[in-house]
Amino acid sequence: MGQRLLACLFHLPTAVIYGSLSLFVSILHNVFLLYYVDTFVSVYKIDKLSFWIGETVFLIWNSLNDPLFGWLSDRVFLSTQQAGAEISSPEVVLKRLRALSHNGPLFAISFLSFWVSWAHPGLQFLLCLCMYDSFLTMVDLHHNALLADLAVSAKDRTSLNFYCSLFSAIGSLSVFMSYAVWNKEDFFSFRIFCVLLALCSIVGFTLSTQLLRQRFQADGKAKWDQESTLKELYIEKLSVPQEKRITLAEYLQQLSRHRNFLWFVCVNLVQVFHCHFNSNFFPLFLEHLLSDQISVSTGSFLLGVSYIAPHLNNLYFLSLCRRYGVYAVVRGLFFLKLALSVVMFLAGPDQVYLLCIFIASNRVFTEGTCKLLNLVVTDLVDEDLVLNRRKQAASALLFGMVALVTKPGQTFAPLIGTWLLCEYTGYDIFQRNPLNNVVSAQPKLEPAMALEPTLRQGCFYLLVFVPIACALLQLLSWSQFSLHGKRLQVVKAQRQSLTQGQAPEVKTI
């Protein structure tokens, strides 16, 4: 029975096994995002200064570790001609899988470090965040890099992304299960639940990476045997000097000349900002725009939909990508964001059902767009390979450089959002009674009260004007992005010719 199960697992499509890795990340990461702040504030009683020091260090490390780990992983691929033996595509994939097989279980173990008090709350908060984010970054970088390394065609990449979205949606169910065991007063059940999740993740990472490694080790061995035969007939060109490896400064200079990369990071910076703005202010919008007009169960339903629907909706977006291309679908989503925001602004804050639909759809479409943009990064990996004639695609490094430029959007989202809200309404989320700044105890004339900006109006304007501004900026930048249509086809054809045409020259008999 066990051998039959292993045989069935071994014959699973590569896309399914690759997508399953998203499940083993999401079952942990969704629980982490939902509970880590509440755990340290309410259970471990961390002080405010230690909390902000930890968050500040985490934000800096979170931005720097992506390009750092990407450089350490992919710097060997940057040269057009490497000294020594060539690195074949199966060997690149095996390198990624080895990294995932090591860092995946360590990521699960670092997840457990949050739920047991083992040091001073401030020190534990800082160490846990940095350690968790380090392993998460390593897993994300190599998992995303495999998206570019396993496939070149848009159809194959959308298939890989399809299974990632499907398994991520399944992984989001861990959030609903966690509600049954979450109790600040009795933490034992929640800790057991987290241990079970971590064990599932460790087993999943180990099994999935082992299956993929066995598959590509067979491919790599066949390619090695073929190249060994060809090398017997190889005529080495002594007149062609070997090129030295590219330094980080030279690589950054190459990126600065990569026009489509620059326009893309502008788009993605705004998108990351908008995604985290929605995540940060979603509870605030529910509380001040809908709390007195919808039931608690409806609010919980909207919150649950905001976690699962982006993954399910992305399955439909990927089918559109196969038909119309990623560029056209992303542009359509930007136009849809703009149109829905304008309609909501014209309708006003009193249309309850329309407001519910807009709040949910705004988050769903925004998160869905974020997931589609990974496909655009894989196209940029292809263009970088072709423009600089690299020996292998430096996919993890390029994903890291994109993260370096766009992750500040995570920090700007709560800062700009709270500043705008405070400027317009006087509402300060850090005060005990912020509404005292908005509503005075003294009686006022009716016209004066009507002219005074209220908190509800401020939340509504924030809800609609931020998407409008983001959509306009993104449409402007996206119109300058040229890696689509015929140019994308040419780049993919050139990448395939480069990767397939790397065999040594043979004698003409």
Note down, in words, how this protein is organized.
This protein is an all-alpha fold. Helices cover 77% and strands 0% of the residues. The protein is built from 18 helices and no strands. The protein is globular and about 60 Å long. The chain starts with a helix and ends in a 9-residue tail after the last helix. Mean pLDDT is 80; it is low at 80-87, 227-241, 434-453 and 502-509.
Task: Give a brief outline of the structure.
It is built from 18 helices and no strands. It has 509 residues and is mostly helical.
Keywords:
509 residues; mainly alpha; 77% helix; globular; disordered C terminus
Radius of gyration: 25 Å
Structural class: mainly alpha
Report mean pLDDT, rounded to a whole number.
Answer: 80
Low-confidence stretches: 80-87, 227-241, 434-453, 502-509
User: What's the shape?
Assistant: globular
Q: Tally the helices.
A: 18
Alpha-carbon distance between the two ends:
54 Å
- Biggest β-sheet description: none
Provide the β-strand percentage band. under 5%
